[in-house]
Amino acid sequence: MESAFKLYLENGLTDVTLSKLKKEANITSGGFYHYFASKDELMDETMQLFIFRYYHLVLDGISDCEGSHKELLKTVAFSMMGHGEHSKKATILSDGTKIDYKDLHVLLMEGVKKYGTIHERYEKLLVKLLNVIYNILDDGKARGTIRQDIENSKISLFIQSVITGTINSWIVIDDVDLEEKMDYAMDCIWDYIKN
């Protein structure tokens, strides 16, 4: 599946033929169909393994992180863009190939737009991201570091939108410094919600 993932990163999801997949993986048609019912099944499982699994591991790991609520929110943001402690596990494939996160996000957006199963997985990921942010805010309110008068659901949605929007602007605009822009955005949000 790693061979397929590299092909998808290089060519996109729709431009990778079954012939190209079999050649890259050095597998026969019989071997391919032994493991996968179709090219779409391989694509779906590959996206699950190399993209969605990573993001779910990152979000699951946030509860184990230490630091202030501001630091936790930044950890969420930076992890979603492929930076930070949890991201290092997924930045290199087994053959040493380093993943370009811009290509990864473009691939993800292509899948979200063109394939229902990937769209559904992405929606679930966004819900999970929203819940992680909500829980950080809730804990911050309970500990007195975040204002009591903010609505967690609205601010969580706003923070999620800032994270995904900042990543999307980085994909489209070449000279965007993603780290600087995300750090600034999260600082602005923190200044608004801190107690």
From TrEMBL:
Lineage of the source organism? Archaea, Methanobacteriati, Methanobacteriota, Methanomada group, Methanobacteria
Q: Where is the HTH tetR-type domain?
A: 1-54
DNA-binding region (UniProt annotation): 17-36
> Under the GO molecular function aspect, what terms does this record hold?
DNA binding
DNA-binding keyword on record = yes
Instruction: Please identify the protein, giving its name as recorded.
Output: Transcriptional regulator, TetR family
User: Which keywords has UniProt assigned to this entry?
Assistant: DNA-binding
Pfam family name, one: TetR_N
Concerning InterPro entries, the annotation shows: DNA-bd_HTH_TetR-type_CS, Homeodomain-like_sf, HTH-type_Tx_Regulator, HTH_TetR, Tet_transcr_reg_TetR-rel_C_sf
Keyword Cell membrane tagged: no
